Amino acid sequence: MPTPTLLLIRPAARIPADAALCRRAGWQPVPFPLIRIAAEPTALAGLPAQMQQAAAVVWISPSAVETALSACSGSLSHLTQPQIAVGGGTAQALRQAGFANIISPPGGHDSEAVLALPWWHTLGKGSCILIIRGAHGRHLLPDALCQRGFQVACADIYQRLPIEPDWAVFHTAQPAAAWITSAEQVRLLFAAVPASLAQRLQSLLYFAHHPRIAQALSQAGAARIRLLDSAAELESALIAERQNPPQAT
């Protein structure tokens, strides 16, 4: 049985772990990054002081954790206040960085799930919350926390910069499926596709882990979308699909 090929439409730092997962599941990974993470030096310079003043810190993504630690030489993990993780991948990045007091939603991986945490009721009104994120992030979380009476500061410590897709890689790989983890990357992907490859791109099986991503894929014309409850389900989903591999067109 030939090995099916999976496009990894992920930031570069996420690709090695996902590639290993693909191989375990019997798939051939093909890195296909569409964005790169660029640190914001000014925001990073003020981050240690902001963290020390915060009653709790919210981390939006693994990229936020990695960018902060790379700039601060790993010196942030001694802080003892609660570290709120948006998603299991972010929580794992915090654990690997040495943080101990980590809180994350048990059944969700977005701002809505973080806002639903009962833990917020333990904080006094007026407590300072620091949100560490990339530039141009969603306003939902800071706006909602402000409405609850918290003082909210945002540290926009990195930018997501687009990368021109290497369509020669796509053509050579003949992918059967793709793993994509943000609606932003869906828009970048379909906006850049050459007309000669558009139908093939739309025909792939897409694995996505959030309804917003699935909706963006559907709006872009993707015909086959497998919506997972979380990124942790990807390996089992790939194994199941491997038993009946999709056919590239």
Strand fraction: 15-25%
Helix content: 25-40%
Q: How large, in whole angstroms, is the Cα Rg?
A: 19 Å
DSSP E strands, number: 11
- The helix tally amounts to 12
Structure class: alpha/beta
Strand neighbour order, sheet with most strands? 3-8-7-4-5-6
The mean pLDDT is 91
Reported for the largest beta sheet, the result is:
6 strands, mixed
InterPro entries: 4pyrrol_syn_uPrphyn_synt_sf, 4pyrrol_synth_uPrphyn_synth, UROS/Hem4
Family: Belongs to the uroporphyrinogen-III synthase family.
Domain Tetrapyrrole biosynthesis uroporphyrinogen III synthase: 19-224
Pfam families: HEM4
Structural descriptors:
249 residues; alpha/beta; six-stranded mixed beta sheet; five-stranded parallel beta sheet; 39% helix; 22% strand; Uroporphyrinogen-III synthase; 4pyrrol_synth_uPrphyn_synth; 4pyrrol_syn_uPrphyn_synt_sf; lyase
Which helices and strands occur, and which strands form pairs?
Blueprint: E1 5-9, H1 15-24, E2 28-31, E3 35-39, H2 41-45, H3 47-53, E4 56-59, H4 62-72, E5 83-85, H5 88-96, E6 102-103, H6 111-115, E7 128-134, H7 140-147, E8 151-162, H8 167-173, E9 177-180, H9 183-192, H10 198-203, E10 205-208, H11 211-219, E11 224-227, H12 234-242
Parallel strand pairs: 1-2, 1-9, 4-5, 4-7, 5-6, 7-8, 9-10, 10-11
Antiparallel strand pairs: 3-8
Helix pairs in contact: 4-5, 9-11
InterPro entries: 4pyrrol_syn_uPrphyn_synt_sf, 4pyrrol_synth_uPrphyn_synth, UROS/Hem4
Domain Tetrapyrrole biosynthesis uroporphyrinogen III synthase: 19-224
Catalytic activity: hydroxymethylbilane = uroporphyrinogen III + H2O
